[in-house]
Amino acid sequence: MWPPMVVIMNTQLEQDENEKWLGMGNQELLDNFKDYEKDVKARHSYGPKGHRGMSVLIFESSVVGYMEAERLNKHFENEGTDRDAWDQSLRRILYYPGGQRQLYGYMATKRDLDFFNQHCQGKSKLKFELVSYHERVVNELKQMNENNQQLIWYKNKIAKEQMHSKALEESFTLVSQRLRKE
């Protein structure tokens, strides 16, 4: 999926007086993940009965954005709150002791985003494209590595030239002093 996205589940909060579901706001959701990339955006899925309890964090369309989304996905896996945990509906824990909401999350797939967009129309639909991981991430990482190698080479070349320039300057100073003495 591009841009990289992580599905966040269990973001539905309560029903209002019209029996419509309310959910977390964008800022509340983003505050839960403030240790991740700064350019993350939040979107929520709504249906006829209101908030559907499904939200998405949209990361920057870059290798860095992908790596941050992957890092968040790994966090959910390590905590046991990933797709598998969410899909095992009998074992879901919706709240921690004390009442804090337990969020679940995983990298988005086309199927997830089609489900997310199920009740959306026009501009409210979440836009995404299917792209090659190799093309968008692996090739970009290779290019970044090559650029870093080139940068190191240029830094070393500049350092050598600065040393050479300093040696020439010192030689020039010595020759100038000798010529003045004669």
TrEMBL record:
Coiled coil: none
Lineage: Eukaryota, Viridiplantae, Streptophyta, Embryophyta, Tracheophyta
Any single GO BP term: regulatory ncRNA-mediated gene silencing
Domain of life: Eukaryota
Pfam annotation, one family: XS
InterPro entries: SGS3 (IPR044287), XS_domain (IPR005380), XS_domain_sf (IPR038588)
Protein name: XS domain-containing protein
PANTHER family from the UniProt entry: PROTEIN SUPPRESSOR OF GENE SILENCING 3
